[in-house]
Amino acid sequence: MDVQIDLRVAELLASRLCHDLVGPIGAVNNGMELIEDEEPGMIGEALKLAANSAEQAANKLQFFRLAYGMAGGRVGGDLSELRDLAARYLGSDKTSLEWAVETDPSSTPEGLAKLLLNMIALAAEALPKGGALSVAVRPGTAGLDVSVAATGPGAKLREETQPALHPDVSVGELTPRTVQGYFTRILADRSGGTLTVDTAQSERVIVGVTIPS
Q: What DSSP line would sit under 20-46, residue for residue?
C-alpha cells in the first residue's frame, strides 16, 4: 500500500479518536470549573461528573489503543480480556454486550483481536439509539466464523459508510466518519477473509468475516 495512503488513513483514524474523546474530556473540564467556582451544593455533583467522564475517556483510549495501535497485534490467543474492554467502550446505559467466543488460545489466528475490536466499533456505529451487540467467534466449515450483530431501534449501516467498504474506494474520499469501515475491511483482507455486512433484517446489522483455516 502506498505510504501516502497509509498516512491519510492514520490521520483519519486519529481524527476519529479525537472526536470520540472530545465529549468526555470536555465534561471533565466542566466539572473542574464547577469545583473551582466552589458553588454551594455543586462540588459533589462536579466531582461525580469529572470522575465519570474521566472513566469514559480512559475506556475509549484503552479500546482504541488495541483497535488502532500496535498493541492490538500483540494480544495473545486468549480473547477473554477483550470482552470487558468492549463492554467498557460501549458503556452500560444504552448498549448491552453478548459474548460467545469459542477459540483455542493455542491456534487463534494472528490479528484476530484487532479485527474483532474494529468489527465491534463498526457495528456499534449502526446503533444510533443503542441496543445490543452480539459477538460470536466459533469454528465453521470453511474456517473461523467471526460475527458482530447490532440489534436495536433504527439499527442500520450509515449510508456514507457503504462506499468505504468497497475494495475500489478512493482513500481520498474517506472521512473520519467512514474510515472505520475502510480500516475494518483492510484488516479482514489481511486475515485472508472478506468483510460482509448483512442488512437484510429490519433493525439488525451483522458484520461478519470467515478466516480460512
A: HHHHHHHHHHHHHHHHHHT-TTTHHHH
Q: Read off the pLDDT of residues 157-209 as tens digits, 9 standing for 90 and up.
A: 999 999 999 999 999 999 999 999 999 999 999 999 999 999 999 999 999 99
**In contact, 149 and 134? CB cutoff 8 Å:** yes
Beta bridge mates, 134? 98, 149
Backbone φ and ψ of 132, nearest 5°: -140, 140
Give the H/E segment covering residue 162. Answer: none
pTM of the predicted structure, to 2 decimals: 0.90
Burial string for 135-145 (b: 16+ CB within 10 Å, else e) reads bbbeeeeebbb
- C-alpha to C-alpha distance for 88 and 58, rounded to whole angstroms: 9
